[in-house]
Amino acid sequence: MTGSADGGERGERKGERTRRRILESARRKFAECGYERATIRAIAAEAGVDKSSVIQYFGSKGDLFREAVHWDIPIAELTADDPAQTVENYLRAMLGAWAADPDSPMAVLLRASMTSEQAAELLRGHITARAVEPMAAVVDSPDARLRAALSGAMMMGVAAQRYLLRMPDLATADLEDILRILVPVFRDVIAPEGGDDSRSRTR
């Protein structure tokens, strides 16, 4: 019985490693070729497994893609009492994730969404559910959802131009300099002082 248990444990570990290898290979292929052109056969070859193994672990290319590009945005963990600290936490987390892995799930999904409506729909749903809605919940303003959506759009734009397009001035800039300029801007968006009253006073 002990031998069988050990063998099962070893088999489970091997299965987990194979599954992870397939996911990593899928991200590279989706990033390189886009969703439409990436094939299960090419992903299997990249991972060093049979095509049947990919199907066994993930079912279809669509299911594999959804899992390969899934990521969580820990909005609650990044939210602080101070709005300025909150936006700095958001920015550091997003830019740090892109810097750490150019083929991160969010980067791959953004690339693929440029050429695939299926990927674009997945990105819209994911950003709305994982970023806009929880961020809007902490914005004290009647137009909280719009402010949250604008914040997400700006953050994605900065990340894409810095890490995907490698725009010279953004790609070479020091992160602290970027934060020094962006944090006050984002603070005004997600933490408008005085809400409608402050806007009324400016009219």
In short:
The chain is an all-alpha fold and 203 residues long. The protein is 79% helix and 0% strand. It has helices at residues 2-37, 40-47, 51-58, 61-68, 75-78, 83-100, 105-113, 117-136, 144-164, 168-171, 175-190, 195-202.
Average pLDDT for all residues: 84
CA radius of gyration is 21 Å
The count of DSSP E runs of length 2 or more, i.e. the number of strands, is 0
Distance between the ends? 79 Å
The percent range for strand residues is: under 5%
Count of DSSP-assigned helices: 12
Largest sheet: none
Description:
The chain is mostly helical and 203 residues long. Helix 1 packs across helix 4, helix 1 packs parallel to helix 7 and helix 8 crosses helix 9. The longest helix has 36 residues. The chain has 12 helices and no strands. The chain is elongated and about 55 Å long. Helix content is 79%, strand content 0%.
